[in-house]
Amino acid sequence: MRALLCFLTSVLLAVPMLAAAQEAVPTETARPDRSATGGAQTLEDILARQRGERIDDSFRSEAIGGSAATVPALGPLGGASDPEIWRALRYNKADVTASAGGDVGKVLVQDGGMRWYRFRRGPLAVYGGYLLLGTIAALVLFYLLRGKVRLDEPTTGRTVTRFQAIERFAHWMMAGAFVLLGVTGLLVLFGRMFIAPYLGKEVNAGLLTGAKFIHNNVSWAFMIALVMIFVMWVWHNIPNRTDLTWFAQAGGIIGKRHPPARKFNGGQKIIFWSVILLGGSISVSGLSLLFPFALPLFAKTFAVLNDLGVPGWIGMEHLPTALAPQEEMQLAQTWHAIIAFLLMAIIIAHIYIGSIGMEGAFDAMNSGEVDEAWAHQHHSLWLDEYKTKQAGRPGGAAGPAE
Amino acid sequence: MKAMLAGFAAMILIGLGAWLALGQMGFSVEEVSSGPNVRLE
Fold this sequence. Notes:
The structure holds two protein chains of two kinds.
Chain A: H1 2-12, H2 43-50, H3 58-61, H4 82-90, H5 102-105, H6 112-146, E1 159-161, H7 165-199, H8 201-233, H9 241-248, H10 266-290, H11 298-308, H12 310-313, H13 325-354, H14 361-366, E2 369-371, H15 372-378, H16 380-392
Antiparallel strand pairs in A: 1-2
Helix pairs in contact in A: 6-13, 7-8, 8-10, 10-13, 15-16
Chain B: H1 2-24, H2 29-32
């Protein structure tokens, strides 16, 4: 799972390539001859683009006309022909004023929009979908091969309190919100592809309108629960040396060993920090999406990345720092969706282990009470600390009730 | 079980509360996507 996270993080660093405007890649070959078309694109350009090659389109982005003084041939018609006006609009070089709508209203043609659209419909949906399906398939396989993690010692009949009511409350508020957010988010992404063809566009539209309403409003509960979870559990999730032992023994999930652990073992700490970091990132990009055009995130982020030299690490040029408002929203959606797929995959594994994957795990979060044998097998250090605290209390570790 | 149900109930209440509160604050879709130049009557 960690290797998968590392790999996907490296892939994520490639996302900014989406945003790269028409950054012309300098070619070593001679300037192509476009006299046949009078400076417009030639058949070679069209064929190259169809083959998926990048062409230097500065011959278009710079052919945006001039003023009446610099292009006297056009005289009373001004200095720019219609195609030149449209090229200026497309390449964001036109001087646009708008009476309403602010910066958003000034963008008439947004060149990056089609790239985003194709990415959302193509790689995002395909890779994201396969990530989730693959995770489920891997867990099914694991369950068939390894089976449920059982209790090796017999139950003692004595329980200890693992999670108090407030902890369980916050967890379930977050869990319920996450499931709703995930399902509604997937509906919005995949509805047109998988629901509309079978149930019709009206049903799909109604369903997705409801999904968006639920998604936007439940997000607040998720964010509140995220803060509660962080505050309650951050101290118990600081990595330490017991985690190294725990990972070295693969958490005991393979074989018969029971590595010691405190309140949260190494695997749980991975889940915690994934939820906090990825969930936090989803929340920030989500807030940007909830308040359109009001919280642009990427221009500043790209500026910081440029200053740190990050694009150079993966052989890229500078990331663009002048983004159209629509482009900001598209990047926010893209980031939000990619992180959401990652988090959904992680949480699917978490749900597996907390429900059918391990005997006694669900009780911990359902009733809060776990048998001492379970605690001894999975969180022996935590059990020792718990018992020490109980013994130290006045009227403390009482004998069996009368 | 009680904590779970309480969590779900809180989620629904916060969702409804957010919808109403944000609407009051002028963040409903009608308000946000409108402007002084838009005459709807």
